[in-house]
């Protein structure tokens, strides 16, 4: 079974920062279709701090590193995204504790802990047109696979998030600001789902994993 070291996880977080910062305007524009248009800026504000602080964060225990990142999210990511992303990193950190590397099985449990925390924190469930509609199938796919080929896992989870964009596009949002505009949220993609899918597609590109996305939002 494959393992991931703390340095590899830190590198993936650094790549995530670049994705979020580069897409600040695009994610806010998407959010503006049915929400208040702050998603890209909220997320980028926090991830700029993560990008700047990451080199100085101690790389001894994955849990401690993720808890530091969680605190940055809670403090610097604005809107409803701060507590959601902060909770995700906190729960993943609690599931990895003082480990300096994790097995694929432990990584899968970290994703499961993060999404359960986000569900409890935001009160959303599957089908509410939130990032959970990407994270839940990603976790299920990870449970199905044995993790012997991490590149294959990355391509498979990128495909789950990509698929979630189109599968939820016509749904009416039930959580978050987009739920307040009701029907106007139908036929617009959820920015959180697009965010997760964009991060995973960028990971594919960064780590040399072949993946051809389907959703228009990933083919810009
Ligand atoms: Mg918003």
TrEMBL record:
<dbReference type="Pfam" id="PF02734">
    <property type="entry name" value="Dak2"/>
</dbReference>
<dbReference type="GO" id="GO:0019563">
    <property type="term" value="P:glycerol catabolic process"/>
</dbReference>
<dbReference type="InterPro" id="IPR004007">
    <property type="entry name" value="DhaL_dom"/>
</dbReference>
<feature type="domain" description="DhaL">
    <location>
        <begin position="7"/>
        <end position="205"/>
    </location>
</feature>
<dbReference type="GO" id="GO:0004371">
    <property type="term" value="F:glycerone kinase activity"/>
</dbReference>
<keyword id="KW-0808">Transferase</keyword>
<dbReference type="GO" id="GO:0005829">
    <property type="term" value="C:cytosol"/>
</dbReference>
<protein>
    <submittedName>
        <fullName>Dihydroxyacetone kinase subunit L</fullName>
    </submittedName>
</protein>
<keyword id="KW-0418">Kinase</keyword>
<dbReference type="InterPro" id="IPR012737">
    <property type="entry name" value="DhaK_L_YcgS"/>
</dbReference>
<dbReference type="InterPro" id="IPR036117">
    <property type="entry name" value="DhaL_dom_sf"/>
</dbReference>
<dbReference type="InterPro" id="IPR050861">
    <property type="entry name" value="Dihydroxyacetone_Kinase"/>
</dbReference>
């Amino acid at each position: 079974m494959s393992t991931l070291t703390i340095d590899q996880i830190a590198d993936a977080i650094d790549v995530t920062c670049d994705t979020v910062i580069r897409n600040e305007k695009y994610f806010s524009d998407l959010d503006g279709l049915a929400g208040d248009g702050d998603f890209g800026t909220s997320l980028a504000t926090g991830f700029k701090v993560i990008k700047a602080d990451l080199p100085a964060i101690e790389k001894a225990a994955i849990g401690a590193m993720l808890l530091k990142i969680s605190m940055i999210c809670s403090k610097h990511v604005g809107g409803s995204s701060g507590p959601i992303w902060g909770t995700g990193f906190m729960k993943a950190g609690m599931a990895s504790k003082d480990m300096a590397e994790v097995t694929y099985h432990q990584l899968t449990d970290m994703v499961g802990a993060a999404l359960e925390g986000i569900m409890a924190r935001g009160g959303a469930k599957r089908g509410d047109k939130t990032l959970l509609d990407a994270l839940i199938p990603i976790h299920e796919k990870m449970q199905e696979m044995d993790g012997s080929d991490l590149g294959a896992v990355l391509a498979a989870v990128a495909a789950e998030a990509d698929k979630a964009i189109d599968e939820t596009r016509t749904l009416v949002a039930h959580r978050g600001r987009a739920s307040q505009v009701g029907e106007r949220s139908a036929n617009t993609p959820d920015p959180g789902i697009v965010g997760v899918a964009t991060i995973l597609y960028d990971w594919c590109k960064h780590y040399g994993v072949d993946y051809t996305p389907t959703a228009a939002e990933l083919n810009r």
